[in-house]
Design a protein that fits this description.
3 domains, five-stranded mixed β-sheet, Nucleotidyltransferase, domain 5, 347 residues, alpha+beta, Actin, Chain A, domain 4
Length: 347
């Protein structure tokens, strides 16, 4: 009882690309990649987060760098639990005085019951007493300070690393939604494939992500951008450097962007007419790392003739939403999944 009295509440955005943790009363205290590096021979965890990301594509055979979540779903349970546990340990300046009492965790909207339970198990196994789940679009809308409890449409498009979540929210719940696996990681794969086919050059994921961030765009830019990249020549096997231009990246990712736009269109098409009118009046809100792609909001606005805006600080939107929920738990508890309670705790 004394430990629960000093217990801390946290919000977790357990993303495919990054994990963010919101500590009640302090704000976002962890924002690092969801990556872990382990020694295959000894099973020892060598690095987690930023340090592990530096090792991508640069390790010997006995060191494995993994992303324990794929498309928003836990693919390596033990490693996911280690990632969460490691991040939580960093916050415990004095573990004798408090533990983690409750956690609100953002998850994709299309997870099965088994997948949801694995998230709950991982969070509880990492040292949290109770885990509550909230769908990411709902958390993102709360983090963006949208009026989700009012009888009006709040359309949110959360483009993360593994999934894109499209949802229309009204009266504190999701009216219609769709989750697709075309997101930031898929754009990276498109760029890797394009560079291989166009330049006969093999590059890794970090280089593809650099291209996407530095010169990638969804629409034509006034300023011409270009970037030199290095990789392995497919013909000779030797190092090679090429110059990539912004229009080539647009060509590489155009098909995936069309998939996202079509998903947004489909969600609008099945929405009730009154809410569709609200969307036309209020617009569409973008969040997540993928929303930072240059011109993406303009592309959606042009194709759907609906004003589309990027929310403030889109990278932390879901984490801030879980933080709002955990700090106003009584108000938001009806929209949360029932928690999984450890067997040794009686209620």
């Amino acid at each position: 009882m004394r430990l629960n009295y000093f217990g801390k509440d946290i919000g977790i955005d357990l993303g495919t690309a990054n994990t963010l943790i919101y500590l009640a009363g302090r704000g976002i205290v962890v924002n690092e990649p969801s990556i872990a590096a382990a020694n295959n021979k000894t099973g020892q965890i060598l690095a987690i987060g930023n340090e592990a990301k530096k090792m991508l594509g640069r390790t010997p055979n006995h060191i494995n760098v993994v992303r324990p979540l794929i498309n928003g779903v836990i693919s390596d349970f033990d490693m996911t639990q280690e990632v969460i546990r490691s991040f939580l340990k960093r916050l415990k300046t004095n573990p004798l005085f408090f533990n983690y009492r409750r956690a609100v965790v953002g998850v994709p909207s299309n997870l099965t019951e088994v997948e949801r339970k694995s998230v709950e198990d991982a969070v509880i196994g990492a040292g949290v007493s109770r885990a509550y789940l909230i769908e990411e679009p709902l958390a993102a809308a709360i983090g963006a300070r949208l009026p989700i409890h009012e009888p009006t449409a709040n359309m949110i498009v959360d483009i993360g690393g593994g999934t894109t979540e499209v949802a229309i929210i009204s009266m504190g719940g999701t009216v219609t939604s769709r989750s697709l696996k075309t997101a930031g990681d898929k754009l990276n794969d498109d760029i890797i494939r394009f560079v291989r086919d166009e330049f006969r050059l093999i590059i890794g994921e970090p280089t593809a992500e650099e291209l996407k961030i530095n010169i990638g765009s969804a629409t034509q830019l006034e300023e011409k951008l270009e970037m030199n990249i290095r990789g392995r020549d497919l013909a000779t096997g030797l190092p090679k450097e090429v110059l990539v231009k912004d229009f080539q990246i647009r060509v590489a990712i155009v098909r995936s962007l069309k998939t996202i736009v079509e998903a947004v269109r489909e969600v609008i098409e099945v929405a009730p007419p009154e809410l569709t009118g609200d969307i036309l009046r209020r617009g569409i809100f973008l969040c997540g790392g993928g929303s930072l792609l240059r011109g993406l909001n303009e592309l959606i606005s042009k194709d759907l003739t609906i004003v589309t805006t990027v929310v403030d600080d889109p990278l932390t939107c879901v984490a801030r939403g879980t933080g709002v929920v955990i700090e106003n738990f009584g108000q938001y508890s009806p929209i949360l999944n029932q928690p999984l309670i450890p067997r040794d705790i009686k209620v």
